[in-house]
Automatic annotation (TrEMBL):
This protein's name: DUF11 domain-containing protein
Organism of derivation: Methanolobus vulcani
Amino acid sequence: MIDKSFLHGTLLLFLGVLIGLSVSSLSCGPVPVEGLIFVDGLMSAHSDNNGSTNVYTYNLTFYNSGDENIYVNTIEPVLSSDTRIISTQQSLIREINGYVPAGSIISIEGSIIINSENSTKEEIMDIEPIKCINITSTEIIHCFNYPPE
């Protein structure tokens, strides 16, 4: 004869496995990101004639992966807090003020000046001047009649 506690334990184990499998089959996999996404960034550096500054040029590309156009006001690379960075935040803001059509790309480019005086080549190459990228958008969602009719 089968022990009742063994039968209950086996039944509970079987139910636990069954519930675990059903929950894992219901969970979704990776969800595709829709909207404006960063796809590529190129950065190159060259030094000026006297060797006291380096100029980093960048080209950043974004892709609208959604089904609708996205209105973008500005794209702004935010600089890291490294004290050798000379460029100002204001000079990096790119005014777009237009739509990025669905399925298309938008690119911005610019330059960042680095004070390379008293720094080795390795120290300069280790600088990551751009910390993140801010994208601003203001768009009229719906125009309501006021006062209501």
